[in-house]
Amino acid sequence: MKLIDSEKIFDTLKRPLKDLRISVIDRCNFRCVYCMPKELFGDDFPFLPQYEMLTFEEIERITSIFVSLGVEKIRLTGGEPLLRKDLPHLVERLNHIDGVKDIALTTNGVHLSKYAQQLKDAGLHRVNVSLDSLDDKQFGKINGRNVKVSTVLKGIEAAEKAGLFIKVNMVVKKGMNEDQIIPMAKFFKEKNITLRFIEFMDVGNSNGWDLSQVISKKEIVEMIDKEMPLQPLDPNYFGEVASRYRYVDSKTEIGIISSVTDSFCSSCTRIRLSADGKIYTCLFADKGFDVRTLLREKASDQELKESIKNVWFNRKDRYSDERLEQTIKGNKRKNKIEMSYIGG
Ligand code: SAM
Ligand code: SF4
Ligand code: SF4
Q1: 19-342: CATH homologous superfamily?
Q2: Within the chain, which residues score under 70 in pLDDT?
Q3: How is the chain split into domains, by residue range?
Q4: Of residues 208, 178, 284, 199, the one with CA closest to residue 33
Q5: Are 343 and 41 in contact (CB under 8 A)?
Q6: Which key words tag this protein in UniProt (predicted)?
């Protein structure tokens, strides 16, 4: 697809727009305790009906507009993105947009063995697989569906075999899985796969987040460094979310995503598109901008472009920078969007 006139845009804090995260579905085959607790996401949960979700044509069109405004990297997420029918076909369509430099996917890995090769052939570059424990009993409890560790590991193997670049994401929550920090670090060091530890975040309104349940970046690094010495590395690029470290005796890296204790809003270049076509300028937003209506009311490319520019020009978000102060003051933001709706 041909690029419409290209330009770079900056928000009120001079942050450029660079990354687009597309949630392709709000459903998931897991019920992770920190994301979609099964008590709240039961059989009667009102997930989006098909007609409310953007079609692949609509996603492709809006993505090409984002690309004309500086987006270079795209991440597909969910819910569980591999539950969206024909996802490799969407990857192929996005890969044909001039100016797209990188397409990545975040998945729980359950369907990865089935789709890894098709995704690679369609033009996917990278995959982040979420795995919070190597212990079946603990992992089954966390994912809420008793899915086994081996199912996810098979997905990772298939992705490796297909030639995808892989990282593994582990959410760390006190009392849930901190005993797995070292076993997971050792396991993925051996495999030469970057493991990224994610501080438990107060996304959405359903996961019962409390500051006391957060294991900080500092604690994680100290724990690993004691067993397997680490050295810090510089970021690869402006806006990199994870702080990088390398094991002193190997080439393998780890990353820490410290949204809570060491936030990175000043370099946040990400915009998010929900499965039902709303744009969010922050993971912790409470309202989005509806592009689906514009798309379905036949707005021109120029009209769509102007609306997105306007959203980005007005962006002031720095929720994580303000969180600690607001939490201490007891000011909780209500009605935040759920992580399963907007993706990570
Ligand atoms: N279902 C896919 C998966 O789990 O990889 C993609 C969507 S999921 C919402 C994206 C990422 O968000 C996952 O790596 C997940 O572990 C992370 N996540 C979800 N809830 C979180 C929370 N409360 N704190 C930190 N990370 C969270
Ligand atoms: Fe599903 Fe991913 Fe949320 Fe787990 S973290 S419930 S796999 S969307
Ligand atoms: Fe970006 Fe919002 Fe996260 Fe800050 S809190 S890094 S602005 S998504």
Answers
A1: Aldolase class I (3.20.20.70)
A2: 1-4
A3: 19-342
A4: 208
A5: no
A6: 4Fe-4S, GTP-binding, Iron, Iron-sulfur, Lyase, Metal-binding, Molybdenum cofactor biosynthesis, Nucleotide-binding, S-adenosyl-L-methionine
* Ligand lying closest to the C-alpha of residue 167: 1
Q: Report how far residue 115's alpha carbon sits from residue 128's, in angstroms, rounded to the nearest whole number.
A: 14
**pTM confidence score:** 0.96
pLDDT at 172: 98
Residue (of 111, 83, 95) closest to 23 by Cα position: 83
pLDDT at 282: 95
| DSSP assigned state of 334 | P
For ligand 1, is residue 269 a contact (CB within 6 Å)?
no
User: If you measure from the C-alpha of residue 87 to the centroid of ligand 1, how many angstroms do you get, rounded to a whole number?
Assistant: 19
Q: Are 25 and 275 in contact (CB under 8 A)?
A: yes
- Among 14, 320, 321, 333, the mutation site with the greatest number of ligand 3 atoms within 8 A of its Cβ is 320
Q: Which residues line ligand 2 (CB under 6 A)?
A: 28, 30-32, 35-36, 78-80, 108, 130, 339-340
Supply the pLDDT for residue 1: 54
Q: Tell me the residue type at 60.
A: E
Indicate the Cα dihedral angle 257, 258, 262, 264, nearest 10°: 50
